[in-house]
Structures are given as C-alpha cells and as structure tokens.
C-alpha cells in the first residue's frame, strides 16, 4: 500500500518541506467566502497564504459569477499581480484601457496600474491571482533549480 498524502476539500496537510491544500473543484470556487476590508463579505475569493505558508507571495483562487463586475478599482503599494484566467470570459480595465480575457489569458499588472474587472459572460469567470513584490526576483527557473540525479522510486500504478 502506498503512503500518499491527500487533502480533503478546504483542508491543509503539512510535511517537512511542503504544504498541501485542496481548494476544491473549479465549480465550487464560487462557494468560498471571505471578509474583505472594503467590500465586506465576499463570495468566490479565497486567499491561500495562510493555508500554504507562503513567504514570498500571496495567491488567491477566484470565481466571479456571470454578469458581475468588481465594484471598485484598486492599485497596490509594492506588489505586482498576475491574473491567470482558467475558465470563462471577462474584461479587465487597466488605467481605463479595456482588455478582453478568457481561458488562457495571463495578465501582469504593475503596482501602480489602476485595475478592475468584470464577467460579461453567462458563465463563471474563474481565475488565480498571484501577488508578489515587484523586482523581488533575484534568480529563477534553471538558475535557482538544483538537479538531483538519484534514482526515483514510484509505487506501481
Ligand atoms: Zn490586488
């Protein structure tokens, strides 16, 4: 019997060098609730930092219902944001410029960019937002990776 770690929906499990969180299936992301400092109770937005112990970024998983627009714009003090759209269709407005987004659209916004977005479709708009300090990346990808060529042992499928 293999000793695999599984997290139930909305559960975190931790190992020595990892945290595992299960955000649930995409259609259930609209059920997440949070207390937002400006908007009050907000559904469909869920921050992951505390579930996963991030130390350099914040990530949220989001589902905006059909026809709904975020009711305000915002900027950031020092963090850039990356919006990764994984389902549905919508529009972002960045410094009053409108761009269409859909599954596969990935948008990076500098801290000073005034941003808002809406779902102008009949299906949920599902997306992930990564927030990270602008200019904090010192090395990346292959510069940061340390290859290990030890044999890998998987249990049989
Ligand atoms: Zn933001």
Describe the structure.
There is one protein chain. The protein is mainly beta. The chain has a single domain, classed as Jelly Rolls (Sandwich), CATH 2.60.120. About 5% of the residues lie in helices and about 40% in strands. The chain is built from 1 helix and 12 strands. It has one helix spanning about 50, and strands at about 10-15, 20, 35, 40-45, 45, 55-65, 80-85, 90-95, 95-100, 105-110, 115-120, 125-135. The radius of gyration is 18 Å and the shape is globular. The model has no long low-confidence stretch (mean pLDDT about 95).
Secondary-structure element order, as H and E?
Answer: EEEEEHEEEEEEE
Largest beta sheet, briefly? 5 strands, antiparallel
Low-pLDDT runs of 5+ residues are none
- The count of helical stretches stands at 1
Q: What is the number of independent domains?
A: 1
Which fold does the CATH topology refer to?
A: Jelly Rolls
What is the second-level CATH architecture?
A: Sandwich
Layout of helices and strands, plus pairs?
Layout: E1 12-14, E2 19-21, E3 33-36, E4 40-43, E5 45-47, H1 49-52, E6 57-64, E7 79-87, E8 89-94, E9 97-102, E10 106-109, E11 115-118, E12 125-133
Antiparallel strand pairs: 1-2, 3-4, 5-6, 6-12, 7-10, 7-12, 8-9, 8-11
